[in-house]
């Protein structure tokens, strides 16, 4: 059974440390799903990882704000995110929060389209002083979308890239990856689509009328 | 197949010279445009309804009544009539009156409106948008078909022994279209009544509307009004033409770039690729419009948006000349080719009258 993990990364640099963190997280999740971990011994399947670099979609995201519909590349990215078995969402910290580009991507997604999707949240920043962005901004965003956010959120400050020890970045990545893997592999079947397309959610007219019948 | 113009009625500054028409000029321009639509051989003029600046048409039946008196063939319609915030009793009365004055040349398109504050301004709750559309239309439908109505609902004061006057002309209510951009509930509503479904597809990619129209056609057949192919479908279009394609692009670009709806967003090139907008030669407009049939099936009404984004009246009238002389005659000819005999034409008062009389004979 192939699980689809979609990585949304909002780093702007090339190379970007946000992308670096995203790749580390994706690799750890891939390893856990295929080879297993303590909670998931033996592993149970294949993983397909798709990385969405929001930098490449910056124009189409802004245009979607104006026109109300996504351009072709953005539509593909939204479809990928909303049909994924698990999301890894990584943003740089800008001005005390997730970046505007990161937020804008989720602003153009239907508010119900990520309901129930397991999400691993992560962020990067210059110093560790911004790490609560994960708890005060990222987690509420995905709670609003009714996604299932795993308990461990991963923050990588610049200094983390040169640190080791018990609280090292690598350990937090492994813990978060294990939590996401548990959520992803616990889902009964891989998802096919959003189920929110026109025509799949309409209420038959007699029910619409009946709901309006006067009481008593 | 019916062809026409639908107007939003926006007062917008012409971005090429900074000139803003007065409300008076804009209203008079709309009337001039409506008369021109008939003169160039098109079939329908539809006006929007809005209750906030920069839009002028707050009172569609007043405007359409005036146009009715100055035209002979033109079908007068709306795009849209707000079924959520207007009192359905007043809609029934106003449009029946208009129908008499215009000798039956009237239909209307129901819409929910897209301006949030209009709901509270008219004492309604926007969260009840769909239920309001459903209940109000159910009442309107009844008022036009039953002489004496006893009625109670959730949103409006009940009626006892109420007769909406005047009664519809010849006892045949105006044909109703239901306009929608995204709601499958409205496609379902149109299908339930056997009414028309107008997909205002001008700002979005076609894939989205294909699903809505397929749903409407399928449900139209489910409710026993005919085959899916016989469902009554209308589509929007948005064009700007010059004989020479490059001239059209050059002249329209500043209007596109500053347009209230999509301006300062995508490029003209991207938008024309992704939506029905065509900026080019009459032949390009013909090709793009003919392609609608391949996507959506044979349909009954094609309305073009022409007078918006600050385009001067003179330019709009030139556009209508091109549409009437070079585009629509070809579209009529081409759309007629291969159109199955049992696919109905766009409904008119005469066709509805004939259908009712046939049914009475059958009974």
TrEMBL record, chain A:
Residue stretches making up the NADPH-dependent FMN reductase-like domain: 4-161
Lineage: Bacteria, Bacillati, Actinomycetota, Actinomycetes, Kitasatosporales
Molecular function terms from GO: oxidoreductase activity
Catalytic class of the enzyme: oxidoreductase
Annotated source species: Actinacidiphila cocklensis
Protein name: FMN reductase
Gene3D superfamilies linked to this entry: 3.40.50.360
Keyword presence, Flavoprotein: yes
Superkingdom of source: Bacteria
Enzyme Commission identifier(s): 1.5.1.-
TrEMBL record, chain B:
UniProt KW Oxidoreductase keyword: yes
One MF term in the entry's GO annotations: monooxygenase activity
Keyword entries, A-Z: Monooxygenase, Oxidoreductase
Sequence ranges assigned to domain Luciferase-like in this UniProt record: 1-297
Basic and acidic residues bias spans: 354-363
Cellular component, GO, one term: cytosol
Segments of this protein annotated with the region Disordered: 338-363
InterPro entries to which the protein is assigned, alphabetical: Bact_Lucif_Oxidored, LLM_FMN-dep_put, Luciferase-like_dom, Luciferase-like_sf
Protein name as catalogued: Luciferase-like domain-containing protein
